[in-house]
Specification:
The complex is a heterodimer of chains A (109) and B (180). Chain A is mainly beta and 109 residues long. Helix content of chain A is 0%, strand content 53%. In chain B, strands 1, 3, 5, 6, 8 and 9 form a six-stranded mixed beta sheet that branches. Chain B has a three-stranded antiparallel beta sheet with strand order 2-4-7, with no helix packed on it. The chains are: A mainly beta (109), B alpha+beta (180).
Chain lengths: 109, 180
C-alpha cells in the first residue's frame, strides 16, 4: 500500500516549455530475494507500474522490477502544451491503484 | 654459412616479377578495404556477435535479452548512462539515463530499458516514452547485488536499437545484507 507520495512539479509553465517532474513514493519495494528475521524469504511486494497522464493522454510509463530501490524516486520530463491536470498513477503487484493529480497552468507568452 | 650470406633470389626482382608482385600488392590492399566497407553498411548483424556486449553480459541476462530483442542489431551510441563508479551501498544507487535523439511526432524514442549483469533478475526498469515527453531523460535509484556492468538499451521509433554500458563497484551488496 502506498501511503505518502511527494510530487515536485511547477505550478506554472510557458507554452512549449519542457518541465521536470520529480516523484518520491514511500514503499518498501520488497524484492523477494531477502531473508527475514526468521530466516525465511520475505515475500515480494513491489510497485509494478507508474503511469503519467497529461490532458487525459498517457505520456509516460515506467515498469518497475525488484531491482528498483525502496522508496522509489523518479525524475522525468513532459512538455507543457496547455493548462490541464497531470495525473500520476501507481499500480502495485496486487493491482491496487494510487492516484494523485496536480493542475498545471500554461501561460501563452 | 656462405650460403646464408648470399643474397636470396627473391630479393632480386626482374622487371616482370616486380610488375606481378606490385599488382598483387595493389589487389591485396583493395580487397580487404572493399569487404570492410560492405560490412559497415550491413546493419543486420545480430547483437550476439557484438564482442563488447558478449563480454559484459551474463548467460542469464543474454536469455532475457534474446526474449526481448531476438537477433536484432544493437549498436553503441545515442543513449547515455550515468552511474557513480563507486557505490558504497548497493541498496540505493543513483542512475541517470538519457537519449540524445529528437522527440518529434514521427521520430522519437520509444523506450529505454536497464539491465544488470549479476542481479537475481537482470531487468531493472523499462521506461516508455511518447513524443509529449519532449526530453528522454530520466533518473531513479536502483539496487545492485554485486560489482557489475549495467546496460541501457533504447529503441527508437524507426526500429533501431542503441546501447550504453558502465561498470560500478559496489562495496555493500543489496542481496547479502540481513534483514534490517
Amino acid at each position: 500500500m502506498i501511503k505518502t507520495v511527494r510530487i515536485a512539479i511547477p505550478r506554472e509553465a510557458k507554452k512549449g516549455e519542457v518541465i521536470e517532474i520529480k516523484t518520491l513514493v514511500s514503499h518498501p519495494m520488497e524484492s523477494g530475494f531477502r531473508p527475514g528475521p526468521t530466516g525465511k524469504i520475505v515475500p515480494r511486494n513491489i510497485i509494478k507500474f507508474f503511469i503519467c497522464q497529461y490532458l487525459d493522454q498517457e505520456v509516460f510509463k515506467l515498469e518497475y522490477f525488484p531491482a528498483i530501490a525502496a522508496n522509489p524516486f523518479l525524475r522525468f520530463h513532459i512538455q507543457a502544451l496547455k493548462s490541464g491536470t497531470v495525473k500520476f498513477i501507481w499500480i502495485d503487484q496486487h493491482q491496487q491503484q494510487h492516484t494523485e493529480s496536480r493542475y498545471l497552468t500554461v501561460n501563452d507568452q | 654459412m656462405k650460403k646464408n650470406l648470399k643474397p636470396s633470389r627473391s630479393v632480386c626482382y626482374s622487371r616482370r616479377s616486380f610488375q606481378q608482385k606490385s599488382l598483387q600488392l595493389v589487389l591485396a590492399a583493395h580487397i580487404p578495404w572493399s569487404s570492410f566497407s560492405a560490412k559497415a553498411d550491413d546493419t543486420s548483424t545480430s547483437w550476439q556477435e557484438d564482442t563488447t556486449l558478449l563480454k559484459i553480459t551474463s548467460p542469464k541476462q543474454r536469455k532475457v535479452l534474446v526474449n526481448i530483442y531476438g537477433n536484432a542489431s544493437i549498436k553503441p551510441g545515442k543513449v547515455k548512462l550515468s552511474i557513480p563508479t563507486l557505490a558504497e551501498n548497493g541498496h540505493s544507487v543513483a542512475l541517470d539515463a538519457w537519449v540524445e535523439h529528437p522527440m518529434e511526432t514521427q521520430n522519437f524514442v520509444k523506450n529505454l530499458q536497464i539491465f544488470t549483469e549479476k542481479n537475481p533478475l537482470p531487468q531493472v526498469a523499462k521506461f516508455t516514452f511518447t513524443p509529449q515527453v519532449a526530453k528522454a531523460s530520466v533518473s531513479t535509484r536502483i539496487r545492485l547485488a554485486d560489482t557489475q556492468h549495467i546496460l541501457a538499451i533504447t529503441e527508437l521509433s524507426d526500429g533501431s536499437f542503441w546501447y550504453d554500458t558502465t561498470k560500478t563497484i559496489v562495496t555493500l551488496a543489496a542481496c547479502a545484507d540481513p534483514y534490517l
